[in-house]
Amino acid sequence: MSLNDTVSAERVHIGFFGMRNAGKSSLVNAVTGQALSVVSDVKGTTTDPVKKAMELLPLGPVLITDTPGLDDEGELGEKRVQKAKQILAQTDIAVLVIDGRAGPSPEDEALLSLFKERKLPYVLAFNKADLLAERRELTPDALYVSAATGEGIHALKERLGSFAKGLQNPKRLVADLLSGGDMAVLVVPVDEAAPKGRLILPQQQVMRDLLDAHCSFAVCQDTELRETLASLAKPPKLVITDSQAFGRVSRDVPEEILLTSFSILFARYKGDLPLLVRGAAQLSHLREGDRVLISEGCTHHRQCGDIGTVKLPGWIEAYTGVKPVYTFTSGGEFPEDLSSFALVIHCGACMLNGKEMEARLRRAADAGVPVVNYGIAIAQMHGILERSLRPFPELLELLQT
Question: pTM of the entire structure?
């Protein structure tokens, strides 16, 4: 997959962290070979995370992020520090930039402990090596660099590339559910909420994974599904539908054909499918006035039939007979404290990388709050969750507990 067709969520995320004036921005500029970040001798020049997509072999397509200093001050500074910590939740490899003249600060040590706690691959980059009168011996996870002279930049890139093997994602979206030569039918409704003139990312990625597995597929809207199935010489191995059409599609697909949704496939690919399946049971226990968080990983203009803010609340109230209090978030917005919620309902996370989705699920688990994703919740409320999980037989026993 080339840089041009690799979405941000599928790239390796490399975050540069450290104190103000440690030289993070200069080092990012040196690694990327571009004047990406504004640099100066004034502390706190980087006020917001700055991102750059590039190719870094053998990692392949990566997303490099320059973050604000961890010691930023004042009310605005605290917000910048919080933004830097949010980037940490998305990070696959961390670079802790330390001013080689001053050595690690308490903030640096605290962040290093956090890297280790999260089992996050990291490199300690002792910057401004050209200004050092003498150098101490470094641990194997550290190296001297100079953004000013270029010393150690190649070594830093090599060190980052050495993490490639450990970051390979063994998960597949759908290819492991079929064999070469099998056929799938993809159900893609086109309504007022569909983007003009294009398919959404989950549909594109599923198609590509099917092609890579040497499988064929047919694509239709839910209103043409019966005719599409009847026109095929043999039944498809699997039907994959947009979750909002689950009810109608389940009635039109014969029981002997496996059925699931794009959202459920992404729940397995980006998240923790068993955890999300268990969370579906909480829908039956919602009470009047319970707080429910409905969160989407992307930002888009919400239409009148928006699935997150319109359709899901309608289905929840019809299914439960109660009216919860909803909170809606999108993009990078996700509450730090989830303890006041009775349930979190999350999208398939096609626009989030695995690390960020993992962090969100961990946050919910730490707060003791059940979490379910769109597709699983919709299948539960339409009475077809068991059927939608048949492609994953190891999970069916969870519905009995």
Answer: 0.78
